[in-house]
Amino acid sequence: MEKLQRGRPGRSRLLIVVAVLLIAVALIAVAVYAGWLFPSNSPKAKIALNGAGATFPCPLITAWSSEYVNVTRAPTTPGPQVTVNYNCVGSGAGITQITSKTVDFAGTDAPLKPSERAGAPNLLHIPETIGAVTASYNVVEFSTGIKLSGYTLAEIFRGTITQWNSPNISADNTGITLPARSIQVVHRSDSSGTTFVFTSYLHLANPWWNASLVGKAINWPVGIGAQGNAGVAGKIQTTPDAIGYVELAYTVQNNMKVAQIKNHDGQWVAPTLATTAAAAAALASPPSPGGDWANVSILDQPGSTSYPIATLTYLLVYKELNVLTTLNQTKAQALVDFLWWAVHGGQDLSEALSYPKLAAGLVTLDEGAIRSITFNGQTLHS
Amino acid sequence: MHVFETLRGRTRLRLRATPGDLAFEGLSTFIALAVVGLLVLITVILYLAAAESIRTYGLGFLSGSVWDSVSQRFGAAPFIYGMLVTSALALLLGVPVSLGIAIFLSELSPAWLRIPLTFIVELLAAVPSVVYGLWGIFILGPAMRVYIEPGVQAVLGFLPLFQGHPIGSDVFTAGVILAIMIIPTISAVSREALLAVPDSQREAALSLGATRWETTRLGVLRYARAGIFGAAILGLGRAVGETMAVTMTIGNRAAFFGSLFEPGQTIASQIASRWLDAVPPLELGALIQLGLVLMLVSLFINLFARLMVGRFLRVGEGAE
Fold first, then answer.
1. How far apart, in whole angstroms, are the C-alpha atoms of residue A247 and residue B265?
2. Angle formed at CA B250 by CA B249 and CA B253, multiple of 5 degrees
3. Residues of A in contact with B248 (CB under 8 A)
4. According to the model, what pLDDT value does residue B314 have?
5. CA B49, B54, B58: angle at the middle one, nearest 5?
6. Which of A212, A216, A225 sits opposite B251 (nearest CB)?
7. CB-based contacts of A293: which residues, under 8 Å, 6+ apart?
8. For residue B320, what pLDDT is reported?
9. Which residues between 228 and 257 in chain A have a beta carbon less than 8 angstroms from any beta carbon of chain B?
10. At what angle do helices B77-103 and B171-195 cross, to 10 degrees?
11. With contacts defined as CB-CB under 8 Å, which chain B residues touch A184?
12. Which residue out of A227, A232, A237 would a mutagenesis test of the B interface target, given it has the greatest number of B Cβ atoms within 10 Å?
C-alpha cells in the first residue's frame, strides 16, 4: 500500500508524458495526411490502381509504375495522378485475385485455361511483353553458348543424360573438351509460369516428355529445387556443373552462361532480346483479345533467328470494368490510360531491363483490345 | 514457493474485491480462454479448408508417395519422411553439443564467463530463420559440398546413407542447419535442469571419491535426465516446424531419398514452396491437410515435452 502511494506521482507523470506523445503523434499524422508537412507540387487528385500476378514481368511493371506516377503528375497531363501497385505474387495467384475481383488487373505468363475462362468471363488478354527462358549452366570449362538441342535438354532434365561428356552433348559441340563430371539439374520448387513455358518446350522437343510433365509445377524426375528465378540463378551459380532454366533478364543481370538452342529452322540460337522478339514477330494470326488464348504459343517458331523457348506474357483486364466494385468512372479511365501508355510509352523502358519491345503487330492487337474496354457500356479510349 | 502461496492466500482473504479487480479478473480470464478458443478455431477452419482433400484421400493421404500438381495426385509420405529424418539428424548432432554447453555453463565455467556465454548462446535463438537460410545457401551449403560432405563420405561412404554426389543442398545440410538452430533451446533448458540439481548430489559424489566427470555423470546428469530429455523434445518441436531455413537448404525435392546427400522436402518446406500458386480446392486442400498433420505432430511433441519437463520439476521440488 505504501509503495502504491509513493508510486502515484511518478505514475501520473508517466501518464502525462504518454498523453503528450500521443497528441504529438496524432498531430503529425494529421499534418502529413493533409499535406502540411510535405506539400505535393501538384494540386491533382490521386488515384491508385491495384494489380497482382506473374513475377516474370515484375521488374518491368514496377518500372512502369514509378515512371507513370511522374508522367501523370505533370501538370501537362490531363487527369489525376495515378499510382500503380503491382503485387508480384505469381501467375496463379494473380488469376485467382482477378477472378475474385479483388484487383483491377492481373499479370500471367500462361494464358487462361478454358476452365479458368469459365470462372472469369470477359477477361481480355493483353500481351504486354515477351519473355525467353534460358538453359543456364555453370561449368568451368565452358564459356557461354554451348549447343543443346531441345531433345538433349529434355534428356538432361529427365535424368537419362547424367554426364557433361555424354555423346548427345559432344555430337553438337565438336571442338570443345567436355568434362567427365555429373550434371546437377536445378529446377523451380515453387509454381511458376517459367516452369510452364520450359516444360511445354520440352514436351514439343522430346516425345518422352509427355503432357503429364507439363505445368507450372511438375513432378520432376531429377534435380534440386529452388525458389523463384533468383533462387534458381543463385543455385546454379553456387553449384559447379549445374544446369537450370532461368528467365533471360536474370541471366543478363547476373552475367550467366546460357546455352544456344536449336530452333525450328535447325539454327543454333542464343537467347537475346533480338532473337526473343523474332520469335514473337513470327506469331501468325493471334486470336482476338477476348478470344481463347489457351493454345497460343510462340515456342519453337519458324524463322532462322527465332529463339525457341519464348513466351508472351499477358495483362488480364475485364472488358466491362463495372464488374469491379473497386472502380468508378475516373479509375476505370485511369486504368485504360495506363494500359495504353504501357504498350506505347512504357515499351521504351523495356530494353534497359532486358525485355524485348512488343512487335508492331502485337501493339496493334493491344490497341484494339484497349479500345474495346468499356465502363457501363461506354468506351474509355477512342 | 510456500511463502508465496500463503501470502497470496492471505491477500485474497483480506482485500475486498473492488470493481476494478473484478473487471481485471474477468478480462484476463477471457483472454486466457480466448487463446484456447483460437486454437480450436484454427483447427476447425484448417479442417474445413482441407475438406476436399480429406474427403478424396482420407488416411491414405499419409501414405501417398506422389505430389503431382499436373495430374492432381497428392500424398504426404515423402514430406513426413523428410521431416522425421531431418529432425532426427538435428537431434543427433544438436543434443551432444547442447549438453556439452549446458555442462560447461553449469559445472565447469568460471563465474565471469558464465553470464556472457549464456547470453551469446541464447542470442543464437534470436537470429531469424531466414538469416540462417541465407547463411545456409551462401556459406554452409558450399562448405558442405566442398569439405564436409566429401570428408564424411571418405570415412562413412560405405553406408548407403552417405552415397551419391555431394551437392550441398540436401537433407544433410538441412539437418546441420536445424541442429544449429535448436542448440540454444536445448542448451538453455538443460542448463536449467542441471542448475536445479541440489549441491548435496555433487557433494555426495565427491565425498565418495568420484572424479569431476564421474560426479557430473552420476550425480548430476542422471538426476537431471528427465529435464534434459524434455529439453531435447522442445528442440525437436522447433526442428519439426522450422520452415524458412529448411526450404532454403534442403533442395526441395518431393520424393523419398535413400542418401542424406540427396535433396528432400519436409512438411513445412513443401507448404512454403507451394501455397502461393496452389489450385483450390484439391491442391490447396492437400497443402492445408499437410498443415494439419504438422500441427498434430507438433502438438504431440509439445505435450510429451510438457509431461517430461513437468516430471523433472516435481523431482526438483521433492529434493528440496
1. 25
2. 135
3. 227
4. 59
5. 165
6. A225
7. A111, A112, A125, A287, A314
8. 34
9. 234-235, 238-239
10. 40
11. 165, 167
12. A227
Question: Which residues have C-beta within 8 Å of that of residue B317, sequence separation ≥ 6?
Answer: B1
In CATH, the number for domain A46-131+311-379 is 3.40.190.10
Would the CB atoms of A219 and B251 count as touching at under 8 Å?
no
ipTM of the complex: 0.77
User: What pLDDT does residue A40 have?
Assistant: 55
CA distance A310 to A197: 8
Q: Residue B70: its chain A contacts at CB < 8 A?
A: 211-215, 217-219
DSSP class of residue A287 equals P
Residue with cell 535433396: B263
Question: Which residues of chain B are within 8 Å of residue A211 when distances are taken between CB atoms?
Answer: 70
Contact A356/B at CB under 8 A: no
Instruction: Name the residue among B137, B263, B277 with its Cβ closest to that of A225.
Output: B263
pLDDT, tens digit (0-9, with 9 covering 90-100), for B139-148: 999 999 999 9
Tell the burial category of A73 from Cβ atoms under 10 Å away from its Cβ (0-12, 13-18, 19+): middle
Task: For residue A189, give the amino acid letter.
Answer: S
pLDDT reported for residue A160: 95
pLDDT value, residue B315: 55
Q: Determine the pLDDT at residue B319.
A: 41
- Put simply, the answer to whether A212 touches B68 (Cβ < 8 Å) is yes
Superfamily of domain A132-281: Periplasmic binding protein-like II (3.40.190.10)
Interface probe with B: pick from A224, A232, A235, A238, most Cβ of B within 10 Å: A224
* Contact at CB, A218 and B68, closer than 8 angstroms: yes
Counting DSSP H helices and E strands in chain A, the numbers are 12, 14
> How do residues B73-85 score in pLDDT, each as one tens digit?
899 999 999 999 9
The whole-angstrom separation of Cα A31 and Cα A172 is 68
Task: With CB atoms and an 8 Å threshold, state whether B168 touches A212.
Answer: no
User: What's the pLDDT score for residue B281?
Assistant: 80
Which pTM does this prediction carry? 0.80
Give all strands (DSSP E) within chain A, no chain letters: 46-53, 81-87, 105-108, 123-138, 147-148, 184-188, 224-226, 242-247, 257-258, 260-262, 268-269, 310-318, 374-375, 378-379
* Nearest by CB: A224 against B66, B71, B167: B167
Pairing of strands A260-262, A268-269: antiparallel
**Per-10-residue mean pLDDT for chain A, 382 residues long?**
49 84 86 64 79 87 91 85 88 87 91 87 91 93 90 95 93 89 93 89 95 90 89 90 92 91 94 91 81 87 92 92 89 93 92 88 90 90 73
Domain with CATH 3.40.190.10 in chain A: 46-131+311-379, 132-281
Going along A32-122, which residue ranges are E strands? 46-53, 81-87, 105-108
| CA torsion through residues A241, A242, A248, A249, sign | negative
Residue of B249, B261, B276 to mutate, interface with A, max A Cβ within 10 Å: B276
